[in-house]
Amino acid sequence: MSRSKYQISPELDALIRAAYRGPLEETPWQSFLNDFREAVNGNYATLILRPPREGDAGVVLNAIVMSPHIFNSYNDTYFSMDPFVNLPSGEVFTVSEFVGEEEFFNSDYYREYITPSDVRHIMGADLVGPDGLTARLRITRPKARENFGEADKALCRQLLPHLEQAIELHSRILRTESERAFYEDAIDKLSMGVVILDRKAKVLRKNQAADRLLQEKRGLQQVAGTLQVGDSQENRAFRACLEEVMEAHRQFKPGFVRAFRVADSGSMTGLGLLVRPLPPIEGSDGSSNPTAAILVSDPYQPRQAPSDILIELFGFTPAESKLALRLVNGLTLDEASEELGISRNTAKSHLSSVFSKTGVARQTQLIQLILNSVATFGGDS
C-alpha cells in the first residue's frame, strides 16, 4: 500500500501544529489565526470561543484587531445583528452562500459594521461539541480580493477536526485549572501551607498560606529558589527526610509519609511539617521527575469565617457570630468581650444563646463544631 496518501504538506502540517499549540499561547490561537489568515489570503481572522450576548462580552480572539472601537462595538452591539451565525456544525460556508449576497449587503450589519472594516467576503464554520462546546471560526477578505473558493473551504474543512480537538483540550485545561484553584483556596482557608519540591528542595509551587510563612521566615525560608528549613542542622535533617520520600516516590509508594518539626521563633511548639511523595508522572521517555508535597501547619494562624456564613449555618445574630469567631481563634470570654467592646455579662448572654442554637454546652465543643463545619471555607470575615 502506498504511503503517499498519508503524507501532508509542510504548510498544512504547520497549520495543524499551530492549532494544537493554541491552548498554550499567552493569547490562545494567535499563531494559528495569523497563519490561517495568510494561507487563504485573508485580512482578518477571528475565533469566537464564547459568543457575546447581552451583558457578556464573550471570548473573542482576533489575529488582527482593527481598533478597540471596532472590536468593542461588535461585542457590545453588532453581535445581535450578525446574520452569519448558527451554521451547521463542522461545515464551511461563505456568507454569500449562507445568507445570500443581496440580503447581506443590504443589511444594517454590513453597512454599519462590516463596510468601515474593509471587509467584503467572509468564510466561516461553527463547531458544536458533545459537551456543549460552541466555537465560531471566521476569515475575511477585503473588496479588492475575490471571494473564497472551493480550495479555501477545503483547507478549512481539513483543519476543523484538529481545531475542535484543540479547543476541547483548552476547555479541559481551564476546568482543571479552575478546580485546582478551588482546592488550593480551600487549603488556604484551613491555614495549611503547601509547598511542592523537587528532589533538590527547589520550590516548584506554593500556595498563599505557605508563601506567607516563607515571607515571615519563621523556621522556613526560600533562598535562591530552594526551601531552607530551620538552622543548618535542621536543614540537613530535613534534606535526609526529603531524600527518603523521594526514594519512596521512585519505588511507587505514594502512601509513604514522614513528619518533621522545626523550631519557630513565633511559638513554643514549632512548625509541624508533613512530607509525602506526589504520584509519579512519567515522561514520554519513561523517566519521571520525583516531586514531594510539604504540608505546613501554623497553629497560630487565625481562622477566618465570614459572619454571614455563621449566621446562615447556625442562626447566630451578628453579635453572636463575632463572639463565636473570637472564641474559635483562642480568646477567652473576657478577652473576646474586651476586643468587641462589650461587657462580660453581655458576652455571657451571647454565649448562652450560641450554646442554645448549636446544642453544645462547652466552649471546646463550640470550637470543634465551627472548625469542623464548612464555615471556614466561606472566605475572609
Automatic annotation (TrEMBL):
<protein>
    <submittedName>
        <fullName>DNA-binding CsgD family transcriptional regulator/uncharacterized coiled-coil protein SlyX</fullName>
    </submittedName>
</protein>
<dbReference type="GO" id="GO:0006355">
    <property type="term" value="P:regulation of DNA-templated transcription"/>
</dbReference>
<dbReference type="Pfam" id="PF00196">
    <property type="entry name" value="GerE"/>
</dbReference>
<dbReference type="InterPro" id="IPR016032">
    <property type="entry name" value="Sig_transdc_resp-reg_C-effctor"/>
</dbReference>
<keyword id="KW-0238">DNA-binding</keyword>
<dbReference type="InterPro" id="IPR036388">
    <property type="entry name" value="WH-like_DNA-bd_sf"/>
</dbReference>
<dbReference type="InterPro" id="IPR000792">
    <property type="entry name" value="Tscrpt_reg_LuxR_C"/>
</dbReference>
<dbReference type="GO" id="GO:0003677">
    <property type="term" value="F:DNA binding"/>
</dbReference>
<feature type="domain" description="HTH luxR-type">
    <location>
        <begin position="313"/>
        <end position="370"/>
    </location>
</feature>
